[in-house]
Specification:
The protein has 141 residues and is of the alpha/beta class. The chain has helices at 19-31, 39-42, 49-59, 75-87, 100-105, 111-114, 124-138; strands spanning 9-13, 35-37, 62-67, 91-95, 118-120. It starts with 8 loop residues before the first strand and ends with a helix.
Length: 141
């Protein structure tokens, strides 16, 4: 399924250790009719990574962040969340290798993330169903 030029834009935030899982999420986002941004797929070799990330984040309609134990320590993940929060776009928190209780107990996790609906990777189909419905409703799929 190809996405239209005005498709819903979804930024996929993740740590380098989670690239394969992030790729699978990006594929599913595409199948829903939206356009994902995945740094390793959407930034050309030799390009200015930070600039490309900022450019897409400025246009993104929402951010999905894959939180794993190692993603908690990655500055880029936190920077991308901060940019999405400032823009007031939806932030979807997906956990892998963490329980909700453990995630919410992390001292460096801001309250605005702890208070969100948080889903486990095994339940991510719920998000894809919502995304697909949103894209179909908007006629951009």
């Amino acid at each position: 399924m190809s996405t239209s030029p005005d498709a819903k834009l979804v930024f996929v935030s993740h740590s380098g250790e989670d690239t394969w899982v992030a790729r699978q999420i990006a594929k599913e986002i595409t199948l829903c009719g939206a356009k994902p941004f995945l740094d390793e797929a959407d930034v050309d070799i030799g390009a200015e990574l930070e600039e490309d990330i900022l450019t897409f984040l400025e246009k993104a309609d929402e951010l999905i962040v894959l939180f794993t134990p190692w993603a908690l320590e990655r500055p880029y993940v936190w920077t991308e969340i901060g940019a999405a929060w400032i823009r007031r776009i939806p932030i979807i928190v997906v956990l892998r290798g963490l329980t909700i209780k453990k995630f919410q107990a992390q001292p460096n996790v801001p309250v605005f993330l702890k208070k969100r609906d948080i889903i486990h990777l095994n339940d991510i189909d719920q998000y894809f169903e919502q995304l697909r419905a949103t894209v179909e409703k908007s006629g951009n799929g």
